[in-house]
Amino acid sequence: MKKDNIIQVKSYSFAVRIVKLYKHLSEEKREFTLSKQLLRSGTSVGANVEEAIGGQSRKDFFAKLTIAYKEARESHIIGYNC
Fold it and tell me: What is the CATH number of the domain that holds 76?
């Protein structure tokens, strides 16, 4: 991971925080449905950022970055409702 790529660094940090939140919700609060979806969408942000960085073309880069953005929005909405 490049330290100068702020999106890559922040999406990784976000995924780590999401995993910790998932563990808290599933162990302490016994909440499974929303926490599982939050885990999927929250960790998908970083995965799609990584895919975008390795994209084969400019169009591929933007397509994958757009997916990462949509997953981030979904995570925000789910997190807001928890």
Answer: 1.20.1440.60
3-state secondary structure the chain: CCCCCHHHHHHHHHHHHHHHHHHHHHHHHCCCHHHHHHHHHHHHHHHHHHHHHCCCCHHHHHHHHHHHHHHHHHHHHHHHHC
Range of the domain at 70: 6-81
Model confidence, pTM: 0.81
Chain segment 27-74, per-residue pLDDT in tens: 887 777 888 999 999 999 999 999 999 999 999 999 999 999 999 999
